[in-house]
């Protein structure tokens, strides 16, 4: 399986990009949002990828962050959501927007994506709500992946013989500053104010000093949920 590609943009189309990796061209399908963020023709690019395998089809999908890739994987697990619908949701909302909508139960935001009906959107929120904290705790975009790399670098970064596995950042427990900062950042991305987010994270860390970032996010969301 191919989990990440680093190369140069050969050409761009409406729904995909061709990446030249040392003379081998990979057609990678991306959401509109991801395509808009990619560099120009001839420039270096690095994308996390997910390979869709069917009897009559092999398709690579590209993502700028582990969060986006993981949301694609989870969205595809929901009945009624295929690759096209997943790309539409990610294109409309982005990874942070999907996290926000699912965490807050915002069915309207999900169904705003092209081709996603109200019943399917509701199913997405119900089935994936408990997954949101773990995805939000995933860190790392590929924006810095090419910084400091030689201009000629264009290697296939991940071994194609091993299954591509999205791994979260190393778990740091004990309610440390780094863990609380990650949780606070995730809550800020959901639209919570600095004061209320910081208070909820601090309370959650105090109640469970051994919580990791995902655990703090989950606990803080419960504290911030409307009462009654």
Structural description of this entry:
The structure is a single chain. The protein is of the alpha+beta class and 228 residues long. The chain has two domains: 169 residues, OB fold (Dihydrolipoamide Acetyltransferase, E2P) (Beta Barrel), CATH 2.40.50.140; 48 residues, Ubiquitin-associated (UBA) domain (Helicase, Ruva Protein, domain 3, Orthogonal Bundle). The chain has a five-stranded mixed beta barrel. Strand 4 and strand 5 form a beta hairpin. Helix 8 packs across helix 9. The chain is globular, with a radius of gyration of 19 Å. 39% of the residues are buried. GO terms for molecular function: ATP binding; four-way junction DNA binding; four-way junction helicase activity. Pfam families: HHH_5, RuvA_C, RuvA_N. It is found in: Cytoplasm. Belongs to the RuvA family.
- Strand numbers in spatial order across the main sheet: 1-2-3-5-4
Question: What distance separates the N and C termini?
Answer: 48 Å
Total helix count?
Answer: 9
CA-based gyration radius: 19 Å
Mean pLDDT: 80
The main β sheet shows up as:
5 strands, mixed, barrel
Describe the global form. Answer: globular
What is the share of helical residues? 40-55%
Secondary-structure content class = alpha+beta
Could you tell me the strand content as a percent range?
15-25%
**CATH class category label of the largest domain:** Mainly Beta
Point out poorly predicted stretches: 140-174
Level-2 CATH architecture of the largest domain: Beta Barrel
Quantity of strands, as a count: 5
Relevant CATH superfamily of the largest domain: Nucleic acid-binding proteins
Q: Give helix and strand order, one letter per element, not per position.
A: EEEHEEHHHHHHHH
CATH topology of the largest domain: OB fold (Dihydrolipoamide Acetyltransferase, E2P)
Question: What is the number of domains?
Answer: 2
Protein name: Holliday junction branch migration complex subunit RuvA
Region (Domain I): 1-64
GO cellular component, one term: Holliday junction helicase complex
InterPro entries: DNA_helicase_Holl-junc_RuvA_I, NA-bd_OB-fold, RuvA, RuvA_2-like, RuvA_C, RuvA_C_sf
């Amino acid at each position: 399986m191919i989990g990440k590609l680093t190369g140069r943009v050969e050409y761009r189309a409406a729904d995909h990009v061709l990446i030249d990796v040392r003379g081998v061209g990979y057609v990678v399908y991306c959401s509109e949002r991801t395509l808009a963020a990619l560099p120009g023709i001839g420039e270096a690019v690095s994308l996390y990828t997910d390979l869709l395998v069917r009897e009559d089809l092999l398709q690579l999908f590209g993502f700028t962050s582990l969060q986006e890739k993981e949301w694609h994987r989870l969205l595809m697990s929901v009945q009624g959501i295929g690759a096209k619908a997943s790309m539409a949701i990610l294109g409309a909302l982005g990874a942070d927007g999907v996290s926000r909508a699912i965490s807050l139960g915002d069915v309207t935001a999900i169904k705003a994506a092209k081709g996603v009906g109200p019943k399917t959107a509701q199913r997405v929120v119900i089935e994936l709500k408990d997954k949101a904290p773990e995805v939000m705790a995933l860190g790392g975009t590929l924006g810095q992946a090419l910084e400091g790399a030689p201009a000629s670098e264009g290697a296939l970064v991940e071994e194609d013989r091993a299954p591509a596995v999205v791994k979260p950042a190393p778990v740091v427990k004990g309610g440390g500053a780094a863990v609380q900062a990650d949780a606070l950042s995730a809550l800020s991305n959901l639209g919570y104010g600095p004061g209320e987010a910081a208070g909820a994270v601090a309370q959650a860390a105090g109640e469970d000093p051994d919580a990791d970032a995902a655990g703090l996010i989950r606990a803080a969301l419960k504290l911030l949920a409307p009462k009654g």
